[in-house]
Each structure stands twice: as structure tokens, then as C-alpha cells.
Amino acid sequence: MKLHIIPGYIQDIYLVEYQSKLLLLDGCCRADVSFIQDFISQQLARPLTDLKLVVVSHMHPDHAGAAHKLRKITGCKIATGEAEGHWYSGVDGVLMHISDILLTQYVANKKNKKQHWLWYARKLKADIYLKENQNLPGFEDWQVLFTPGHTDRDISLHHLPSNRVYIADVIIAIKKGFISPFPVFYPNRYRASLQKISDLNAKSLLLAHGGEVQLSKENITQLIKNAPMKPITHWRAVKSKLKKVLLS
């Protein structure tokens, strides 16, 4: 197994190479599709059909945006965690989907990235729904871990032979250290997910925003201590800003 860590549109892309197949650890941005195609066909000199599985850790634009398009191009399967309903369901879901795409564009602008069309389906049509502790079909050296909190359906992937864990957005790296993601819809579940990651004693963690890092138990304990006690969501953030404006 060879792990390629590739800078994506706003997140790190993790492409896992085997002798006869490829695995994408998350669904990336829609803007990453052509780059992934070029990397497989030019850098690895392999046919696009070698991409056999794309995992979607959760439904945000930089984790699900390329999944459907890549399946259409390569014939790969899409796998995601087993969760009730669709994340972006109903009127609130439509509005949240739009706001998440706009937030992704905002982050891209801050990174001085070229403007791209980022729209993607808000309802994922997966081929495989994964359960806790299940091994990835066709890639049995990876085990599925449910790590919700950021959303209700976040999953992480534990590479058992090397004891490395892809944790998507469970932890975010910034210049000053490590922080919780935005949003955190389920604070209690989020702290439990951090504890689950800590208990693994992993050799390293693979972050969607921050690359491969090594965190001690003390680092994660501090993250748990600083984690939000109440939900931090889009609507709460808007209400907080409106309140500040009105008070001023």
C-alpha cells in the first residue's frame, strides 16, 4: 500500500495505491475531479478504471463534491457511513447545502484559489453503506470507525497494518495548533469521537485539513477540554452576528 497525500482545492486528498487498484479516502471537491484524473493517468500512469472505491466521510462540499462525477468517469463504487435519511434534507437542508458551498468558496478565496463551479447533488446515491468496525469492501486493511459530531454521519478510516487513521474533519490543523471543526452539531458525540481517536493510540492521524500529523493523548485531551459544549452551527453563528449588530 502506498499513500499519496495530494493538495486539493481546499483540502488534502488521500489516494491509496495498490498493485491492481486505487482507493480514494474521501469524496473531495467537485473542483478536484480533473486534477484526480490527471494524477491517476499521468503521475501514476494508470487507467482511470483502477479507481475502485471512493469513500464519503460526510456530505460537505470538500468531502462529497466529486464522488458522483468520479463514479461516472471511472465506474468506481461509492461507500459512506450508514445513517438515517439525507444530511441535507428538507428546506433547512437546501439552505445549509447552499451555505456550505458558499463557505467552501470563501475558504478557496482565502487560499487564493481560482474560481470553480462547486455545485454537487445534496443527496448522495451511495453503492455501499458501511457499519461501525466493518472492513472496507475490497480494501480489508481499512476499518470503518463512526466519529460523529461535526455532522451526524462522519466516519474515519483506520489502516490497521500501519496504525494510521484518516479522520476527515474531526480535527483541523491551523498555524497555532489544532482546533475543532465548524460546525459542530452534536457536541457530546464530538467529544466521544475525540476520545475514540485517542484510545486508538494511532501512529499518526490523517487530517483533511492539515495533512499527516502525530498527536499525543495530551493533545487530544486538551482538544476535548476545549471542545464546544453547545452546538456551533450556521444558524447559531448568524444569530450571534445579528445580535452583535443590533446591540451595537
UniProtKB/TrEMBL annotation:
Pfam families: Lactamase_B. SMART domains: Lactamase_B. It comes from the Bacteria. SUPFAM superfamilies: Metallo-hydrolase/oxidoreductase. Keywords: Hydrolase. Residues 10-209 form the Metallo-beta-lactamase domain. Gene3D superfamilies: Ribonuclease Z/Hydroxyacylglutathione hydrolase-like. GO terms for molecular function: hydrolase activity. This is MBL fold metallo-hydrolase. It comes from Litorilituus sediminis.
